[in-house]
C-alpha cells in the first residue's frame, strides 16, 4: 500500500516539476538548492495530481472557508494550498509528499490557538483535519472514539444521548486534538487526563504505526497544531495521533459545515448539517 502510494507521489512530483520547468533534485540538503516557493509549488502540484478532490488553491470555496476557520486572526496566513484528508491513509500520503518534495507544511486541528504559525503557514501546505470525523461510543460506554476534526461542543452534544460525558475542554469552540496533545484538562478541574488506547500514529516518513498507544500531551501530533520542516526534523519526529482518534467520514464537525465536507450519511446531534449555538 505504502509502496504504491509512494510511487504515485513520485510520479506526481516529477509531473509537477516538468510543469514548473525545473529538474527534480534526487537529493538536496537545503531549501536554497531550489527555493522555498518552488518547493511549495511542487508539493501542492504533486498532491493535487494524486488527490485532485482534496487539494484546494486560493479562490476555491473550500480554500477560502478553511483559511478563515481560525479562532484567532493571528493565524490568518497564506498557505500555497490546503490539503484536506479524509482518512489516515491520506494523512500518511500528505506527510510522505512533504518529505519527497521537501515542502514545509502545517497541521490544523480545532484551530483554537493565538500563536502565529502554530496551525497555519505562509506559502507551504496547510493540512486541515476537518474531515477526520469519526465519532462513536464503545459498546460498554467506557470510551469514545473522536476524530481530530471535532470541537468539544459537538462531542458533548453527541454524548448527551448516551448519558455519558468526557473530560475535555471547558469551552465549546476548543478543538479536541489540540487540548489532548497539550496535556488534557487543566489540573484545577480535578479530573484525570483521558486514558490512552491504541490509535493510528503517523511517523514523519509516512507510514501509519497502527496499534500503538500515544502519550497524552505529546505535542508533535498529526492531529495537533505543529509546523513541520522535513529538512530540519527528518524521520526522527514522531507524529502520534491522540487517544481515541482515528479514521474518517462524517461531516465537518465544526460549528457549521464547510464547503465540500464529507457526509457518511450518519446523522448525529450537533454535527454537520446545521449550526449550533453553545451556551
TrEMBL record:
InterPro entries, sorted: FAD-bd_PCMH-like_sf, FAD-bd_PCMH_sub2, FAD-linked_Oxidoreductase, Oxid_FAD_bind_N
Keywords of this entry: FAD, Flavoprotein, Oxidoreductase, Signal
Molecular-function annotations in GO: flavin adenine dinucleotide binding; oxidoreductase activity
Cited Pfam families: FAD_binding_4 (PF01565)
Keyword Nuclease attached: no
Signal peptide per UniProt: 1-20
Transmembrane segments: none
Domain FAD linked oxidase N-terminal: 79-184
Residue ranges, annotated region (Disordered): 220-279
Domain of life: Eukaryota
Stated family: Belongs to the oxygen-dependent FAD-linked oxidoreductase family.
Protein name: FAD linked oxidase N-terminal domain-containing protein
Amino acid at each position: 500500500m505504502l509502496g504504491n502510494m509512494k510511487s504515485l507521489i513520485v510520479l506526481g512530483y516529477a509531473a509537477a516539476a516538468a510543469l514548473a520547468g525545473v529538474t527534480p533534485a534526487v537529493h538536496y540538503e537545503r531549501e536554497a538548492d531550489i527555493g522555498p516557493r518552488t518547493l511549495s509549488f511542487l508539493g501542492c502540484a504533486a498532491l493535487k495530481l494524486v488527490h485532485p478532490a482534496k487539494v484546494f488553491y486560493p479562490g476555491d470555496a473550500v480554500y477560502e472557508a478553511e483559511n478563515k476557520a481560525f479562532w484567532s486572526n493571528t493565524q490568518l496566513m497564506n498557505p500555497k494550498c490546503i490539503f484536506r484528508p479524509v482518512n489516515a491513509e491520506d494523512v500518511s500520503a500528505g506527510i510522505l509528499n512533504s518529505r519527497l518534495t521537501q515542502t514545509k507544511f502545517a497541521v490544523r486541528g480545532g484551530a483554537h490557538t493565538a500563536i502565529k504559525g502554530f496551525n497555519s503557514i505562509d506559502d507551504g501546505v496547510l493540512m486541515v483535519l476537518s474531515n477526520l470525523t469519526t465519532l462513536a461510543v464503545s459498546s460498554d460506554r467506557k470510551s469514545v472514539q473522536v476524530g481530530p476534526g471535532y470541537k468539544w461542543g459537538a462531542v458533548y452534544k453527541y454524548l448527551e444521548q448516551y448519558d455519558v460525558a468526557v473530560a475535555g475542554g471547558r469551552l465549546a469552540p476548543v478543538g479536541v486534538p489540540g487540548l489532548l496533545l497539550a496535556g488534557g484538562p487543566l489540573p484545577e478541574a480535578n479530573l484525570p487526563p483521558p486514558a490512552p488506547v491504541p490509535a493510528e500514529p503517523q511517523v514523519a516518513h509516512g507510514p501509519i504505526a497502527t496499534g500503538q498507544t500515544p502519550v497524552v500531551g505529546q505535542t508533535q501530533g498529526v492531529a495537533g497544531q505543529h509546523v513541520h520542516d522535513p529538512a530540519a526534523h527528518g524521520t526522527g519526529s514522531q507524529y502520534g495521533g491522540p487517544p481515541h482518534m482515528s479514521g474518517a467520514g462524517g461531516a465537518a464537525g465544526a460549528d457549521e459545515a464547510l464547503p465540500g465536507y464529507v457526509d457518511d450519511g450518519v446523522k448525529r446531534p450537533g454535527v454537520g448539517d446545521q449550526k449550533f449555538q453553545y451556551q
